[in-house]
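User: Could you check the structure of this?
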Amino acid sequence: MGVVITKDSIDLGIVTTDAGPMLKFYRDTLGLKVEGEMEMPGGNHMTRLACGTTTLKIVVNAKVPTDKAAPGGIGGATGLRYFTISVSNLEQATNELAEAGYRVVVKPREIRAGVTISMIEDPDGNWVELLQMG
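Assistant: Sure, the predicted C-alpha cells are below.
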C-alpha cells in the first residue's frame, strides 16, 4: 500500500549548533525566505525557510549533540550527503557564494547534455548542489 503523499516535495531538516552562520548562508546568501520560527519540545528551536514547495528546517537543539556528521561530502560516508536546489542562474549564484567566502567543492560543469551543476559547502560542511537545466 505505501504512504499517501500529500505534497509534491520533501522537507529537509539540518541540525546545527549555531543557527547564525547557517541562516547567513541559506537566507541571506542563497535568498531562501523565512516562513517562520518556533520553539520545539525540549527547548529546541527551528527556523523554517522556503525553497519552492520544500521547507528547509534549521534546528538548534537545547542540548548540544555529541556526534557530528562525517565530513567529505559525497565521498566522505554513506547516508544523506547532499541535496539539490534547481536554479536558473547557476554561474551567477555559484560566483556569489564563492565571493561570500563559501567553499565551492564542484565548480560549474555540465554533467550530461543540458544539465549543469555546482556544489557548495555550507558553514557546517553540508553539500548543496545547484542544478540548472538547459
